[in-house]
Amino acid sequence: MDAGTSGTIGQTAKVGRYRWVVVALLFAATAINYVDRQMIGVLKPTLSAEFGWSESDFAGIVFWFQVAYAIGYLSFGKVVDALGARLGYTVAIVIWTISHMAHGFATGITSFAMARFGLGVGESGNFPAGIRAVTDWFPQKERAFAIGVFNAGANVGAIVTPLLVPLLVLWFDWRMAFFVTGLFGIIWLAVWWAVYRHPTEHPRVTPGELAYIQQDPADPVEQIGWSRLLVVKETWAYALGKFLIDPIWWFFLFWLPGYLFERYDLDLKTFGLPLAAIYLISDVGSIAGGWMSSKLIKAGRTPNFARKATMLLSALCVLPIWFVQSVDNVWIAVLVIGLATAAHQAFSANLYTLPSDVFPRGAVGSVVGIGGTVGAFGGMGMALFAGYILDATHSYEVLFAICASAYLLALLVVHVLSPRLAQARVKAA
């Protein structure tokens, strides 16, 4: 046995798995993020009855969350690039937890909109910080799977919310529900601050694991300004993809509870289980989408083929939702909608890897921030459009048609702007 072979075997034996502890923390934060985010949707029937909201009133409250999310996402991309994942995440969760608990003091549309605005600013930091942490802790071939795993926390949060929140409302009231769930963020922050470090500074990371994490060719960590990124077509491949698919996820998150409540004559005690089942199915999609592209890369396919093949399959799985409003059985509707939400998560897990695939490390947070902002603009438009359509037609047909077609269009845009997922050519400062 030569020295090179012996070294390789020794290194393999010493590779640790602490990086998956980091993913577990990101998973938990994303779950909390979605509990806090989705509560307004789950409580929509209760709050609308108490405050007399129309669909457009509710859409206006969602709109201000999206405005703040757009502003915050762009800003947090730069914050994370400057401060790193540990401090960036801390700032984000402090803002969103305070704002979430402030919902418990709201008394009408204006105060709810203000609380949602603060929540949007804070929650916009979750994915820039999470993706930066994955970029720091994982080699390229594992990033999609790692992102898929922590992104699955969104579905866990979406599963927990319709099961837990109605119980809190029935036991206490809707105001106390915001205070109790706000404690989750406080607990997570204490654990994050105690556990998380950059891999080069972490005492639990073995030399073998650090070498595994850093196996990709080194890239410069130069901070790259927005002005240089906005003229790069790969930035817009990611951003326009987000513009097309993010509004669909927002629609699912904020309007599905009301849709199930009205279409299938459910109530606060009965609509939680079908909604939880939808997000349980979508959880599988989040992990499967990351696993599929990572598996293809390990089998020798290019990241370009692996990402886009997975995204194509995901886009095709969304198409049946076009006809879901004609389904009379609630559990068949759950399967159709669950397939669409699972496909969204699989598609999203691969789209999220595009910045780390094609940009230098110092630009990843900023590109993610730009994409999140553009996606939030799409969500703002979708919120207002959904409120208008539902008030005018009392039908979800047009909205489900948009959901069905968005993903194929997003994949087309990504492919046209980045046909090979080649390294982006960012001009020197």
Automatic annotation (TrEMBL):
CDD domains: MFS_ExuT_GudP_like. Its main location: membrane. Keywords: Membrane, Transmembrane, Transmembrane helix. This is Hexuronate transporter. It is found in: Membrane. It is a multi-pass membrane protein. Residues 22-422 form the Major facilitator superfamily (MFS) profile domain. InterPro entries: MFS, MFS_dom, MFS_Na/Anion_cotransporter, MFS_trans_sf, Sugar_P_transporter. The keyword Membrane applies. It comes from the Bacteria. GO terms for molecular function: hexuronate transmembrane transporter activity. SUPFAM superfamilies: MFS general substrate transporter (SSF103473). The chain crosses the membrane at residues 18-35, 56-75, 87-106, 145-171, 177-196, 236-256, 276-293, 305-324, 330-352, 364-390, 396-417. It holds the Pfam family MFS_1. GO terms for cellular component: membrane.
